[in-house]
Write a structure and sequence with these properties.
Elements (H helix, E strand, L loop, with lengths): L1 E7 L2 E6 L5 E4 L6 E5 L2 H6 L13 H17 L15 E3 L6 H42 L1
Parallel strand pairs: 4-5
Antiparallel strand pairs: 1-2, 3-4
GO molecular function: calcium-activated potassium channel activity; potassium channel regulator activity
Membrane topology: Multi-pass membrane protein
Keywords: Glycoprotein, Ion channel, Ion transport, Membrane, Transmembrane, Transmembrane helix, Transport
Amino acid sequence: MNCSYNCGSDCWRVSKYPCLQVYVSVNNTGRVSRLSHNEETQDISSECFYVPRCQKDSVAMHVMIMNISEHLKVNQKVPCYYDPSEQQEMVLLTRLYDHSVVFHSLLWPSCMLMGGALIIVMVKLTQYLSRLCEELGKIKR
């Protein structure tokens, strides 16, 4: 497969890497599906299991892909993710966006929003108490 890498400002060169295709048999269904490394790899290349970061040295990328291939040959059983409701032919080896990522991406902005709202409420309460004290001071005179 061809890929482009940056060789300086306004300079792009083309390099090549081998396209490794891995097929797995999903135990529950018995169907054979193509394995992708993660969601990004699935979006970048629907054909290849892994897309390395493009670099000038195509031999290094080839060695990296061959190491991955040898590792997968040694491990005949690998846990993977698939969606039984979808009729896709793709299965993921690892997930980038699981439930904890979604939880944290919603939790921390919500905490910041609540903290900001709490600061505003405290400022308004301080203003109210200041006016109340001022009025009580006028009544006693």
